[in-house]
Amino acid sequence: MADFDASATLLEQVRQARENSTPLRIQGGNTKAFLGREVAGEVLDTRAHCGIVSYDPTELVISVRAGTPLSELFAALDAAGQMLPCEPPSFGEGATVGGMIAAGLSGPRRPWAGSVRDFVLGTRVISGLGTHLRFGGEVMKNVAGYDLSRLMVGSYGCLGVLTEVSLKVLPKPRQCLSISLDIDCARALANLAQWGQQPLPISAASHDGQRLYLRLEGGEGSVAAAHQRLGGEPLDSAYWSDLNEQRLDFFNEGLPLWRLSLPNNLGPLDLPGEQLIDWGGAQRWLKSAADNIQSLAQQHGGHATCFSHGVTEMPFQALAPALLRYHRQLKAQLDPQGLFNPGRMYAEL
Amino acid sequence: MNILYDERIDGALPNIDKAVLLKALQQEVPDLDILWREEELKPYECDGLSAYRTTPMLVALPRHLEQVQALLKLCHARNVPVVARGAGTGLSGGALPLDKGVLLVMVRFNNILHIDPAARTARVQPGVRNLAISQAAAPFGLYYAPDPSSQIACSIGGNVAENAGGVHCLKYGLTVHNLLKLEILTLEGEHLTLGADSLDAPGFDLLALFTGSEGLLGIITEVTVKLLPKPQVAKVLLASFDSVEKAGLAVAEIIAAGIIPGGLEMMDNLAIRAAEDFIHAGYPVDAEAILLCELDGVEADVHDDCERVREVLQQAGASEVRQARDEAERVRFWAGRKNAFPAIGRLSPDYYCMDGTIPRRELPGVLKGIANLAQEYGLRVANVFHAGDGNMHPLILFDANQPGELERAEALGGKILELCVKVGGSITGEHGVGREKINQMCAQFNSDELTLFHAVKAAFDPQGLLNPGKNIPTLHRCAEFGAMHIHAGQLPFPDLERF
Questions:
Q1: What mean pLDDT, rounded, does chain A reach?
Q2: Which of B175, B283, B284, B489 is the most exposed place for a label (fewest CB within 10 A)?
Q3: How far apart are CA A91 and CA A106, in angstroms?
């Protein structure tokens, strides 16, 4: 397993970029390059800066350098019987820890276990001022100063170069069982709203238009009881990783792919295209050529992101004008020369 | 070094003519309740950290958001500092007023706007009490998980501003993990929505940035929280140990067994005896440490976990393991812990509660360090510890009527926090920096890091009018604080083992 501290080199590259006012395109495994807008800039490759800095399973904390492959992180946790509960997708073999934080994407367990951001305890970041900084730490509770660590998650590298992250991890559940049920979408979503108010051990819920897919996780007793109550047919647990990594047939090339993040209690929605429901209804994948997906999502109280590259100039939903103004001010303060991934999220940032 | 705002090192504050400001406010926001007489202002001179008091110039008690907006716009235009306050239960002086500023009290915004059981959310105004949310959600079998010990009184707006915790954080998270959406008014009176009714929102995660920002970035006007289904059952085990080390090791062993307890609390001998004397919880008074381990969830799982934890505790050398036989005994076990602070208050005229966090493995060394420091400063320290999440609450016993004791207690507290930083922890787990730990921030962060914090502040409040002097120290203050240390002419902890 590679283990190398290349932070001095990364810092030097940022300082050079500052001197020459050269924008940087921060890149790990480049598996999520299809997300967001094109960035013109010199590549800053994080992959040499890799390795697990510390991991003590009984502390439930792992600290990892940004260039570490996600697969190495998962393997280390797996060997200790632990996991990162938010199930970040990789979208390819080379995916790195830094890319996971920058994109902030979470998998099927997200509504029940939390997002990538929820598992971040601390970060090390190279700022736009050319300084290498440490925020947060390796403890569960830490309210000293502003929470810049969690701010980094999902910022697509626009606020700084992440060099290291400390993550909260948890023991794997003792029992895990996946089932599928032959019920239509409307009933499935209505049931999920009911079940959500009960202490059922559901940890994933998806509907493909035909069947409801559920994962039950917990102790032996609770999983068995829930299985007995819900019935259904056994489901290969690979369904969840195929869903998460977009390997299901639904995701085959074709129309543009949109991710809609919506309130969890909307019920079935009549959207222009084929749908796949995840997160118990709170995340819906839509294949559609329509050009009004983002305004549809907004009408329903959510937002939409285009997951197909080059379809739109605005892959992320537009921000309200006042909110955009504060985004610009924040970017201007933390990255005054506009060096980091300029325009990756929005043209103005 | 005085903890009250010191313009020499915390930055000059605008000189505002009180009479002129009062007149302007009365004219421009005629229906706003404003307190301005000395005797009306007195009750607002401190929050839960009552050792530090400053009488505010004016107190504003708005009832409508339009009033808040108008007040902010006026203060922005006239360069007037604004300190926001909720229920005033904070323990770090986050709502400590300024004599050159307006105290904006948000407690009248106390309506629960909507409980949506299908979405498992509650939309509330910022002055709603933490416990009131769970009470309103109870008919649906739901509750709001974060439970700071002040939950009967503290307001949700303050919880968000401080990123409040509680005893169930390891399993259920802090405030930041249980929020969906915030409505904010900036200093300029501009309205922002952070987060969304969906699980994420486009743009930067400003919801996370604002949570715990201690009123320095904006004023919270509405909060949407997540609700959880109430666990079916909760059971608690009480284990006694003849050494703190063994108890600490037992905690690690529970985690290693793959079990995440709902609550996991440790108390040392002084805290045990104080609590037992006060509450008669049935604690073993001769134990050096006790662990309270609560397991919650679905009945079958909790039963299995109890058996597993009992085995782990016994193997870890517990001298006794007792499971609460019924709900009454469970409540009694917890009552001892939850009343540990007032119980210790009976041993001493005053006590000072610290809030450092550490990696759990450092516990034995840190407790030894605290004992040495306590001896050096001639004060007693009782320890209660959220063992599950590494959050310590050492309670320093002192008598403010004895000349110099308060200062000694403060100095000892500062040393304890610096010790936490030294072992990789933090100066504050859940109480916030506020004014209380402003100097210790200089130990936790270097000047480059503080510079970036000030940059964040400048993005939202370039004039520095929202809660000035809290949370982030000026570089000037840290320079003086550092100079004071060097002046002592020795390392911060000369007689401590390095670990």
A1: 97
A2: B489
A3: 12
Token pair belonging to A203: 């940890």
Q: Which of A140, A156, A333 is the best mutation test for B, with the most CBs of B within 10 A? A: A140
Q: How far is CA B457 from CA A146, B209, B432, in A?
A: 9, 11, 17
The whole-number pLDDT of residue B440 equals: 93
Position A93 confidence tier, pLDDT thresholds 50, 70, 90: very high
Whether residue B96 is found in the same domain as residue B67: yes
Q: Are B472 and B362 in the same domain?
A: yes
Cβ pair B298:A221 closer than 8 A: yes
Quick one: tokens of B497? 């083992």
End-to-end CA distance of chain A, in Å? 36
When pLDDT is averaged across residues A305-333 and rounded to a whole number, the result is 97
Provide the chain A residues 263-292 that lie in CB contact (below 8 A) with chain B: 263-265, 279, 282-283
Indicate if B483 and B356 belong to the same structural domain: yes
pTM metric for this prediction: 0.96
Q: How far is B437 from B431, CA to CA, in rounded Å?
A: 10
* One domain for residues B352 and B467: yes
Classify residue B498 by its DSSP letter: P
- CA A178 – CA A159 distance, rounded (Å): 39
Residues 4-43 of B with CB under 8 A from A: none
Q: What is the mean pLDDT of residues B4-9?
A: 95
Residue A342 has pLDDT above 90, yes or no: yes
For chain B, percent of residues with pLDDT exceeding 90:
89
Spatial distance between the Cα atoms of B4 and B172, rounded to a whole number of angstroms: 35
- The closest CB to that of A221, out of B300, B357, B437, belongs to B300
Of B202, B252, B305, the CB nearest to A303: B202
> For residue B479, is pLDDT > 70?
yes
State the smallest CA–CA distance between residue B402 and chain A in angstroms. Answer: 32
- pLDDT tens digits, B295-347: 999 999 999 999 999 999 999 999 999 999 999 999 999 999 988 888 998 99
With an 8 Å Cβ cutoff, is B124 touching chain A? no
| Tally of domains in chain B | 4
Enumerate residues 202 to 261 of chain A having a beta carbon within 8 A of any beta carbon in chain B: 218-222, 224-225, 261
Torsional sign, CA B357, B443, B438, A164: negative
What average pLDDT does range A130-158 have in this prediction? 96
For residue B292, the domain's CATH number is 3.30.70.2190
B495 is a domain residue = no
CB contact under 8 A, B209 and A222: no
Closest CA to B497 of B364, B338, B397: B364
Indicate if the pLDDT at residue B494 is higher than 50: no
Domain map (residue ranges) of chain A: 7-172+329-334, 175-306
Q: Is residue B493 pLDDT above 80, yes or no?
A: no
Residues paired with residue B224 on neighbouring β-strands, in sequence order? B123, B181
Confidence (pLDDT) at B1: 47
Look up the domain containing B119 and give its range: 113-229
* Site from B69, B167, B199 to mutate, A interface, most A CB atoms within 10 angstroms: B199
Residues 125-184, chain A, touching B (beta carbon < 8 A): 127, 129, 131-135, 137-148, 150-151, 153-155, 158-159, 170-172, 174
Q: Give the ipTM.
A: 0.98
A141/B231 touch (CB, cutoff 8 Å), yes or no? no
Q: Going by C-beta distance under 8 Å and a sequence separation of 6 or more, which residues neighbour residue B219? A: B68, B72, B82, B84, B104, B106, B184, B185, B186, B466
Taking the Cβ of residue A112 and every Cβ of chain B, the question of whether any pair is shorter than 8 Å is answered with no
Are A58 and B360 spatial neighbours (Cβ–Cβ below 8 Å)? yes
Chain A residues with CB-CB distance to B200 below 8 A: 104, 115, 154, 261
Using alpha carbons, select from B66, B102, B100 the residue that is nearest to residue B85.
B102
Q: What is the pLDDT of residue B130?
A: 98
**A186 in contact with B, Cβ within 8 Å:** no
By Cβ distance, the residue of A265, A305, A326 closest to B459 is A326
